[in-house]
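A student in our group prepared the protein record below, which I am reviewing. Thanks in advance; the entry in question is below.
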Amino acid sequence: MDTRASLSILLLLFGVSQASPLMERFEGVFVSEPELLDITTRILESNNGQAPCRFCKASSGRSGVSQNQNALYCFNNNCFWKKNSNNIVEIPYIVSSEFSFNDKLVISNAMSTFHSKTCIRFVARSTQADYISIENKDGCFSSLGRTGGKQVVSFNRQGCVYHGIVQHELNHALGFYHEQTRSDRDKYVKINWENMSPDMAYNFQKQNTNNQNTPYDYGSIMHYGRTAFSIQPGLETITPIPDSTVAIGQRQGMSDTDILRINKLYGC
């Protein structure tokens, strides 16, 4: 195959990824994500039942510390990424060689929304001391905010390399928690404690969050699904109020409010 033909194929694949954000890699083939599977279910399946952000500073996982969303409160903003002189927030990153060409397209496509809608720019790392290392580890997880040094964001190839999941974990790396634990959540959702195991209840504890004067967002990429950590299939752990039919736990991509919050937090 000559060079021009090879280039044409690569450009075609990239175009498909850009034009169809719901068409993502699974087992090396582009497939459409099942519409009925919410983002929390997808992440939990990949994490073998562990919580979605296992090694966060305010984690919902094995460290046993609670996790929340909206933005975290941060002393002197040291856990946020810094702006450069051009008012751009550059986040250096590297990607493991274990990811396929298609995997990398999905990750790049997910990053492109940050680039087009916010002042966040994920840039290839050169010698920067603080950076994100995107790796194929056991599950989907990220540190919370800028932790300093090498900071692992995991997208397991068997279940995490999807547009919405990539954006979900990158939002954790920017300093955002889960929506359903924000300080005013009781006005908008009912937590069904009886439908979850007691040792998973910490994932739903209400937190003192920095809500940035933004409304509660059922459509946030950071919202848990209805049955997250349920003791049996079909039982709701989260019910929207007053309208219980409102959709939650979507994984198609960042909502307008998700984008607004990034821009407010980072002064874009």
